[in-house]
From TrEMBL:
Homodimer. Pfam families: GST_C, GST_N. It comes from the Eukaryota. Its EC number is 2.5.1.18. InterPro entries: Glutathione-S-Trfase_C-like, Glutathione-S-Trfase_C_sf, Glutathione_S-Trfase, Glutathione_S-Trfase_N, GST_C, GST_C_Theta, GST_N_Theta, GST_Theta. Its main location: cytoplasm. Belongs to the GST superfamily. Theta family. The keyword Transferase applies. Residues 1-82 form the GST N-terminal domain. Keywords: Cytoplasm, Transferase. This is glutathione transferase. It comes from Salmo trutta.
Length: 381
């Protein structure tokens, strides 16, 4: 049975697996999984990967998820050149160091810029406020500086003189905001020179093939019909649905689900469950979900760890699909501490969305735009 790879090349981790396999002449069957169409939630894909994420592989009776695990598996099974995942203890440690850092260190910032520059303006019909854009850009620039100064340094590649899995995983992440029209290489001579070396090692033809989809994103978004996404309308007429949090009758300090109340009653395309903790839809499709929780922190000297997350329930299983974290230093006076995120998710009739937060006892439930709310927009089928 041929090796099967379940991939969507709009995904950075999928591109790294695809490039690695192609570069090392590993024969495989390309099984396209459209994340934008929600195919990862289908019954067949669930048999391959219960985590419901791409990439995933099936090698005979053996199935494996998570891009880093897949890359290491392929390197060892097919005994690829040592430089990809070095046997040398310290070189391998350098590769593992970057692979351990990158998920929260660069991916979230590159993906956020893609959202802010392309998807939110198109879908919501408004420009992202300058302070939010500047903050996101500052986070991304901080990560790029670390890659230049710490991980690359004075070396040709992250682990030394030759390309490794670390460089491959890094380049696909850094190319994500480029797809939004942000030239992250401008003015960064070290990063640009490193990119040129990585591209030369991979081969320009393969590099361009893997990235052609993401680099065409601006044109793709430009051709989207946003006429029904603006002024409170969605393609189905479902509208922009705001939902505000309700103060819970119990006092919670730990992580737990929030209860909600509709801002208005005509929620034709979605509804709250009886428990008021879960949202379901009456029309399957793509939904843009914006969640904000504002914590009202007391005066004090210590710190507070705050968390916000969105859970997606399907087939009696629940996955975390978006989250935000912050550690706040208490001040001499009370302060507001907002956490927020936005995510585009395909939701079916049987699926449910729920929001969890910690510490719930500190949440501001006042009904105002900057407090605690969910805004949901149905974008397309």
């Amino acid at each position: 049975m041929a090796l099967e790879m379940y991939l969507d090349l709009f995904s950075q981790p999928c591109r790294s697996v695809y490039i690695f396999a192609k570069k090392n002449n590993i024969s495989f069957d390309f099984m396209k999984v459209s994340l934008l169409e929600g195919e990862q939630y289908g019954e067949e894909f669930g048999k391959i990967n219960m985590i419901r994420k791409a990439p995933a592989i099936r090698d005979g009776d053996f199935c494996l998820a998570e891009s880093i695990a897949i890359l290491k598996y392929l390197a060892e099974k097919y005994q690829t050149s040592d430089h990809w995942y070095p046997a040398d203890l310290q070189k391998r440690a350098r590769v593992n160091e970057y692979l351990s850092w990158q998920h929260m260190g660069i991916r979230m910032h590159g993906s956020k810029m893609f959202w802010l520059r392309l998807l939110i303006p198109k879908i919501m019909g408004v420009e992202v406020p300058k302070d939010k854009m500047d903050g996101a850009l500052e986070d991304l620039e901080g990560s790029l500086k670390l890659i230049e100064e710490k991980f690359i340094g004075d070396k040709p590649f992250i682990a030394g003189e030759q390309i490794s899995l670390a460089d491959l995983v890094a380049i696909v992440e850094i190319m994500q905001p480029v797809g939004s029209g942000l030239d992250v290489f401008e003015g960064r001579l070290k990063l640009s020179a490193w990119r040129d070396r990585v591209q030369a090692e991979i081969g320009k033809e393969l590099f361009d093939e893997a990235h052609q989809g993401i680099l065409a994103s601006q044109e793709m978004v430009k051709n989207m019909d946003s006429s029904k996404m603006q002024h409170g309308e969605s393609p189905s007429g479902a509208g922009v649905i705001p939902i505000h949090a309700l103060p819970t009758k119990q006092s919670f300090a730990e992580l737990g689900e929030l209860e909600w109340e509709e801002e208005r009653k005509e929620m034709d395309s979605m509804f709250l469950t009886k428990s008021r903790t879960h949202i379901q839809v009456t029309e399957s499709g793509w939904y843009l979900v914006f969640v904000q929780v504002t914590f009202k922190l007391p005066a004090g000297k210590e710190t507070r760890d705050l968390m916000l997350r969105l859970d997606f329930t399907y087939s009696e299983q629940t996955d975390q699909i978006a989250s935000a974290f912050d550690t706040r230093q208490l001040l001499d006076e009370e302060q507001d501490a907002p956490l927020s995120f936005s995510v585009l998710v395909w939701v079916g009739l049987e699926n449910r969305l729920s929001v969890l937060a910690s510490h719930r006892a500190l949440i501001d439930y006042e009904r105002r735009p900057v407090s605690t709310c969910i805004t949901i927009i149905r974008c397309s089928d």
